[in-house]
Amino acid sequence: MKKWLVGVDEAGRGPIAGPVAVGVVAIPIVTDRTVSSLFGECRVADSKWMTEREREHTFMTITELAVVRSRVSMVSARVIDRIGITSAVRRGVARALAGLALDPDKCEVRLDGLLRAPAVYCFQQTIIGGDALDPVISLASIAAKVTRDRHMVRLARKFPHYGFERHKGYGTSAHYEALRKHGPCPHHRRTFLRAIV
Asked: Which residue numbers belong to the known binding site for a divalent metal cation?
């Protein structure tokens, strides 16, 4: 009998700097504990459609609700360069799910896009556009994005030349200009920069 509904999504697949983050959020499957009842005052949507303030508010609720379990696994730029982004995301999914410490047989896992959970999770479904269509995947999307964005802001303090706090590692024109001027830092994905640097 399944006891947990688990959403899985990633943030940061496309940037040229920083880690990729995989978020997982698990809520108990009981009739009075739906996403809407747990998060009634919070906006729950695809994180890309939410303001930073909305995401932060919902993420705070995710971390404060005792009945909700969540984990975010970040895989570094160095690992992305070594094994590729697809394998890095797969590693992040496995680590984040393992971090929940739930019995796989008691989980119904819903994943966004082309993501897959390890085969031990027999009850899993991949939903194209799931971060917009399924509330538990939306929660995972929010957890991944907020965690990664906060990490990029911290990196900006150590590497102020690149503007990580603004573009979060994405390849904006200002970011490319900073790369031309200063070269890459240890958190740039070298395999993503071959045509530029």
From this structure: 9-10, 112
